[in-house]
Design a protein that fits this description.
Strand order of the largest sheet: 3-2-4-5-7-6-12
Strand content: 15-25%
Helix content: 25-40%
Structural class: alpha/beta
Distance between the termini: 69 Å
Length: about 400
Amino acid sequence: MNKKVMELKDVEVWDGNMANSQAFRQADVDVVAAYPITPSTATVENYAMFHANGYVDGEVIMTESEHAAMSGCIGAGAAGGRVATATSSQGLALMIETLYQASGMRIPVVLCLVNRALAAPLNVNGDHSDLYLTRDAGWISIDAFNPQEAYDMTLMSFKISEHKDVRLPVISNQDGFMTSHTAQNVKPLKDEVASKFVGDYLQVNALLNFDKPVTHGVQTEQDWHFEHKAKQHAALMSSKKVIEETFAEFKELTGREYKVVEQYKMDDADVAIVCLGSTYETAMLAIDQIRKEEGIKVGVVAPRLFRPFPLEEVAASLQNVKAVACMDRSAPGGTVGTLYNEISGALINTPARPLVTNLIYGLGGRDMTIAGLKDIFRTLDKDAKAGKISGNIQTLVGVRGPALSYYNVEGK
């Protein structure tokens, strides 16, 4: 099939879903198998439109469920094709079994996960419940904070996933609605430049290569299962080097620089928050204002890479602060938040032992404002000067009704 050429401007106005779709198109994906779900529907919808209008020559498969969608991607990937899909929330929850299959079978798949709250109660807006649900599935997980980054991360995900030293599936995350449905200026690559950057797909252990028969999805018990998972984990941990190399190559190509841990105004910060997603950009605005107006030296750290978790880089970024608030945009379910656990683990064996608190915020798409963040920075500054946490370790911020906080700092 001869593809039609899509003419792109130097600057396009895209939301995060369109950014994903265009990255799929430019990567020359062989198979997109999907079952649409809000707020990721438009990622697949746009790509299907490109397919219907002759701009792509891959296959679009509409399946009966998200479980079947990822199963289709696994089958197509095992057969030797470049594959991708998108989902959110309950779709990811239904798909989760197959995520372990994809990573365990070392099949490159790109999943655009548009982050949304998990039911019940039903909610279609963005939080990080589904992002956290993937944390132990053996996938590389990268976070975008705006539509430009969604385009860049999704495009780079193909190159990372298919690298000969990685061969693992990749999740490209973005915040539901805050990023997926917010239109901003995006600077895309030319089609031929993007295609060259991603590169041709290299088949490894393809089921349809009948000259070299292979088996996928074998069973292992106590004799070999441990070794298999250890090797998989080693590949996942080692992928950080490939990710950093890919980021560096992308910077050389575009001038856009990405790091496995992003940070702002941390050089002289006394206190800081750690967050994921679009909150990072809101925090930047709050930091500029409160530094100018009140002279409080505050900063923000945001892991770009959620898996493999950049423990050393996170620890280094927080070595000089006196108080840290880890902001989890997901219901913690009877314990401290996931990000709090990750950051505490990064800091526990370091010389710096800052005060570390856990803020649960923004569930179901509730806004986190500049004013709200400034209040958080003021509390952190107060705690840092006092040398102790003024309340409990965990606090739910922005929730209506009685104040909710848990885990007394004195263990009482």
